[in-house]
Design goal:
73 residues, mainly alpha, two-stranded antiparallel ribbon, 2 strands, globular
């Protein structure tokens, strides 16, 4: 796995905002770009980080572990 700092920071913003759209607005990028980054990060880590719902996202157990690591970075 190649470490991508930007992907981890986007994940941190998504988790903190509770939505992909909220993170996209904060970063001034399209929602689709943030969604793509989240998919790429999940594929590279081979684990699901987010549960996607109509009302927003929920961080999975694995996502909480990555979130704690990201906060420590």
């Amino acid at each position: 796995m190649r470490f991508n700092y930007n992907h981890v920071m986007v994940f941190l913003e998504v988790a903190e905002k509770g939505s992909i759209n909220g993170a996209a607005q904060q970063r001034h990028v399209a929602q689709s770009a943030v969604s793509r980054i989240m998919r790429e990060l999940e594929l590279s880590l081979k684990v699901k980080l987010l549960e996607r719902h109509a009302w927003g996202i929920e961080v999975t157990e694995a996502g909480r572990v990555v979130l704690q690591l990201a906060k420590n970075i």
